Amino acid sequence: MSLQEFIPTPRFEDYRENFRDFFRLERHDGVVVAAAHTVGGPIQLSVQNHRALGQMLKTLGADPENEVLILTGSGEEFMMDSDPDGFALEDQDMSYWAYEYAYKDGRINVSSLINDLEIPTIGIFNGPGFHSEIVLMCDITLCAEDATVFDLHFDIGSVPGDGIHSCFQELLGVKRAAYALLTGEAITAQKALEWGMVNEVLPREQLLDRAAAIAGHIMSQPRITRRLTTQVVRRPWKKRIVDDLDGGFGIQMFGHVSKQKSIHGRQAISETVQYVRDGRRNNFDKG
User: Fold this and answer.
1) What's 104's DSSP letter?
2) Is residue 4 part of a domain?
């Protein structure tokens, strides 16, 4: 008998409760559905839920009873607003939170999705929204037919270096990614499918059932096959984030510090994303 015992792994019942304010977690036969939310509705960006994402992903990855992750938002939008007071901490101490939020937590979020989850992941882009990298960088991505993919960072005065740059450059290529990041291009679900950003486009009410069907197919193969296949299909993302993730976040952090004020205010974001709600391509072309 060994002189030492294993450290206990996280218990699903415990962390489901711990993360309930940020994610609705359900698990059936090893398949976890994590639905991100803010007070039950679409995600409203904040310092707090930004950190909770990486914590949740690391915890799921540390539980050997988790075999497939389905990651989705809630409601008819993915993320189109910020929490009204979600960045008060950043305003109070910009130097501290520029590192904690804009550099450390953000890097952990992306890295945890790619490195800490050694299980297949299915992302559901359930509606229009920014910070789409967290579902676009899943192994498989399903998309609501009325969703719109876009990035708002440049238009609110921030550097789009927080993982969305890695995501767009990997999926779109250099020219399309540059255009999307500099212009805030509103990419329709059908165009996202044509360009290889997502795998399937479906009515919103069919997304979870379709994800469950795909997860069931994945679960039909032995555990070691599933997990090792994940290592193969995820290799391009691993190479991409090693090459440029930290640098992008560092550049964005410098931009935050140089401004010395938060750029994540709810009014600024609401006004910036209005063109997406209006069905326009960007903020500067009127048609």
Assistant:
1) I
2) no
H-helix segments, the chain = 12-18, 47-61, 88-92, 94-99, 106-111, 133-136, 164-172, 174-183, 189-194, 207-218, 223-233, 235-259, 266-272, 274-277
86-131: pLDDT as tens digits:
989 988 898 898 899 889 999 999 999 999 999 999 999 999 999 9
Domain count, the chain: 1
Please choose, from the candidates 87, 125, 110, the residue with its C-alpha nearest in 3D space to the C-alpha of residue 259.
Answer: 87
User: Which of 35, 222, 234 is CA-nearest to residue 120?
Assistant: 234
pLDDT > 70: percent of the chain: 100
pLDDT of 71 above 90: yes
Q: Is residue 45 one of the residues assigned to a domain?
A: yes
CA dist 247 → 103, 107, 132, 264 (Å): 10, 10, 20, 21
